[in-house]
Amino acid sequence: MCASSARRLNGAGTGRRLVRGPAAVLFLAIAAASQAQAQSPGPTPTPTPTPSPTVTNSSFSAGSTVTNLGSNFLERLGNQATSGFDKAVRSNPGGGGASESTEAPRFRSWAEGYGLTATTGAQGYFVGDRRRTYGGVVGVGARVAPGVNVGFAVDQSHSAIDIPLALQSATLDITQFGFNASVDKGPWTWAVALVHGFGKVNSSRDTGFGSATAGYNARLGGALTELSYYWSIDQSRIVPKLAFEYVRASTGSLQETGGLDPVMASGATAERARILIGAEIGRYWVFDQKIFDVSAYGKFVDNVAQNFSSVTVSLGAQSIVVQGIGESRYGADVGASASLSLSNTARLYVNYDAKYRAAMRSHQGTLGVEIKW
């Protein structure tokens, strides 16, 4: 092989002659810089905040409170119409064996003050709450025909809701209008009750950088029908009862203001239909022309249908859908009452009512006075 051929092979095999010189060095530097730029990560995008499903715990608690306050008022109105003691007085106005033909007062009015405490345990994203309610009721009623009675009442209440594990609280002020009517036919009594209510919810959420607050409306409507049978044994009684109740409540949409990352939430509705089966037992005593009566009741509760709508929670461009909470299907209601009739036209009474569900407990005490004329 000739020397020139050997030199060409040597240059082709090593390539060293191709990378020598200023132009080749500049080419390699540009290629290396381009490769480094391609491999270096770009700027990290700022994450978009996503709302937590717990931020509307107070809204769900307020909706549940509205629903339960409607049920409580309905059941008190129904009990007024089917109470064994009231039935006995209507049938025997003077008590102690007076003639049923004795003319009873035609009109009546009543006033009540009550306090209620309730707790709801954790359910999934809902961390649980504590509620305190204070309220008052005034009403009037009349006997419009033999065995037919009607009544109208107004209930005004204030509720404080505390959800410490979610750093949230709320207040609920609600006004309810109620109507009840009853028809007596021998030992049977059939009663109906209707309620309509409206109110205002104010919520507060601690965001760590101030409080996010919101205000929105609440509405409710409900109906109850109850059938009872009065079975007397001397001055004692047993009154089996069967009732059907329906309540629908709604809360409006909300827009928080203040704090860190205030959220928006759509309105929510809650519908519940239930059957209540139970009985009242009681006894009265007559002394010094006064009647003292005590009674107790127990009811089995079957929530045959519940529909709690979902809520869309939005924070900027991000949103999530959260399902509402409801009661357990089965539960029990119990209570007791003591009444002192000072005369044929004046009565004082005190009631205790409790509700037990799988994740909810409530206790209510009521003090009332009734005047007839």
Quick summary of this structure?
This protein has helices at 3-14, 22-39, 57-82, 84-91; strands spanning 107-120, 129-145, 148-163, 168-185, 188-206, 211-229, 231-233, 236-251, 254-255, 264-265, 268-287, 290-308, 310-315, 318-323, 330-341, 346-356, 360-372.
Give descriptors for this structure.
373 residues, alpha+beta, disordered N terminus
Plain-language structure description:
The protein is of the alpha+beta class and 373 residues long. It has helices at residues 3-14, 22-39, 57-82, 84-91, and strands at residues 107-120, 129-145, 148-163, 168-185, 188-206, 211-229, 231-233, 236-251, 254-255, 264-265, 268-287, 290-308, 310-315, 318-323, 330-341, 346-356, 360-372. The strands form two sheets. Strands 1-2-3-4-5-6-8-11-12-15-16-17 form a twelve-stranded antiparallel barrel. A four-stranded antiparallel sheet has the order 9-10-13-14, with no helix packed on it. Strand 3 and strand 4 (168-185) form a beta hairpin. The longest helix has 26 residues, at 57-82. Residues 1-19 have low confidence and may be disordered.
